[in-house]
Amino acid sequence: MNKKLLCYRCGESLSGLTLPLSRQDECPRCASYMHVCRMCENYDATVTRQCKEDGAEDVLEKTRPNFCDWFIASFDAFNGKEKELEDRARRDLDALFGGSGSGNETATGTSDADKLFK
């Protein structure tokens, strides 16, 4: 059972980061913060407050860095289906609004819009 730690948002390997993840750790590809609820073993979208840990403080923004003492990096946080749906929606929006030819993408492939919604 030699699982790799992957970014919850883009699926990039986080092998360059050391565990436990610090509050300021970011994905090398999409620059999303990694010490977030969505990257935690206790995150569960189907339960109240989306956290399985009753003692944890309520965190409203599940993709923003936090100081939760219950944080445990999840090796199952990346959801390929969710990423596929996000990519499809982005392509549809690009087609609707004239594509991504605006030159707003950085060298890492992150657009200005991606930075706003990280």
Model description:
This protein is an all-alpha fold and 118 residues long. The protein has one domain (1-101). It is built from 2 helices and no strands. The protein has helices spanning 80-96, 112-116. The longest helix is centred in the C-terminal third of the chain and has 17 residues, at 80-96. The radius of gyration is 15 Å and the shape is globular.
List low-confidence stretches: none
Number of helices: 2
Instruction: Please provide the count of β strands.
Output: 0
The figure for the number of domains is 1
Distance between the termini: 30 Å
Short description:
With 118 residues, this protein is an all-alpha fold.
Please outline the helices and strands:
Blueprint: H1 80-96, H2 112-116
Task: Pick out its properties.
single chain, 118 residues, mainly alpha, 2 helices
